[in-house]
């Protein structure tokens, strides 16, 4: 649904996006992670047609986005820094959208008054930051978008509202095949909602993974041996991290779990446990294995 191929963008001599490619399937949720200055907002501004790429292609539904009003009208963009007309109430903004966008869904707007407990007569710019975020989701969802692009979306929302907003959007992914791309610094925030995650660092995608597959491909093992550690044998494994506490060896290993276990049983360890890994740990070890300074890449 969203396809970015070999995208390059420089500001003067500074290369903000460096031959970047991503692919986001229809009816999926793609999480874009990365530290400050990685290039997330710059990429997003290409996806919503604000920036024109230097080179490369950016398409949504197979169509280029830049200067393409038809494609742009199918995308709802909720930026980090929200903008609303300074004099308009929620109600007036809703009327404005209803006149401008044929897809505006009035019934939905009315129904969502139950979810967003804000008086629609209030002027939006006078609301708190979190309340303004709520309004942007309320109105954005009523535009019945095919694609939602969200920059730090739940920043400022309280935990109950975060859950409500994600529930509404995930319902649209399931029922209307909406496609969502969401940027964040926080992997934990994305873990529950995304099916793919891409990590952006210095303008490049350094890791892109389907989350369902990830946990089946990387394992935390605790091992202990009666005699010496069989180093020759361990060299055969794809070890991302190794540490030792007393006689217990902790390994983070890539590979098929059953194969690993049957290999390791052959060397008769006195302890052989497979421990669960969080998604955050997986990324930390994978990126560490690729030579990235983890502290600078993930929070
Ligand atoms: N209009 C611009 N002119 C010059 N440099 C820019 C411009 N926009 C972005 N940059 C630079 O491009 C890099 C990427 O910025 P971007 O805002 O895309 O990062 P980000 O990943 O969204 O960061 P954050 O998490 O802090 O919001 C930064 O070094 C930034 O200074």
Automatic annotation (TrEMBL):
GO terms for molecular function: ATP binding; ATP hydrolysis activity. Keywords: ATP-binding, Nucleotide-binding, Transport. Residues 2-227 form the ABC transporter domain. SUPFAM superfamilies: P-loop containing nucleoside triphosphate hydrolases. This is ABC-2 type transport system ATP-binding protein.
């Amino acid at each position: 649904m969203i396809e970015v191929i070999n995208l390059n963008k420089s500001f003067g001599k500074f290369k903000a996006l460096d031959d970047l490619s991503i692919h986001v399937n229809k009816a999926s949720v793609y999480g874009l992670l990365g530290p400050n200055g990685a290039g997330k907002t710059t990429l997003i501004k290409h996806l919503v047609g604000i920036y024109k790429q230097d080179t490369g292609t950016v398409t949504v539904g197979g169509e280029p986005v830049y200067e393409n009003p038809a494609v742009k009208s199918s995308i709802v963009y909720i930026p980090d820094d929200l903008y609303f007309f300074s004099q308009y109430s929620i109600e007036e903004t809703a009327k404005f959208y209803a006149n401008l966008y044929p897809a505006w869904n009035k019934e939905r707007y009315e129904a969502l008054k139950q979810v967003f407990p804000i008086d629609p007569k209030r002027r939006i710019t006078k609301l708190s930051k979190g309340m303004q975020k709520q309004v942007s989701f309320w109105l954005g969802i009523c535009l019945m978008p095919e694609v939602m692009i969200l920059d730090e979306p739940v920043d400022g929302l309280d935990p109950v509202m975060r859950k409500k907003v994600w529930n509404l959007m995930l319902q649209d992914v399931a029922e209307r095949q909406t496609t969502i791309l969401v940027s964040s610094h926080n992997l934990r925030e994305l873990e529950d909602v995304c099916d793919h995650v891409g990590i952006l660092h210095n303008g490049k995608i350094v890791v892109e993974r389907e989350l369902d597959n990830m946990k089946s491909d990387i394992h935390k093992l605790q091992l202990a041996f009666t005699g010496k550690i069989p180093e020759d044998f361990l060299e055969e494994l794809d070890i991302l991290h190794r540490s030792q506490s007393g006689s217990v060896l902790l390994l983070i290993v890539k590979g098929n779990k059953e194969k690993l276990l049957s290999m390791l049983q052959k060397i008769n360890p006195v302890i052989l446990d497979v421990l669960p890994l969080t998604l955050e740990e997986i990324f930390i070890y994978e990126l560490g294995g690729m030579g990235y300074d983890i502290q600078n890449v993930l929070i």
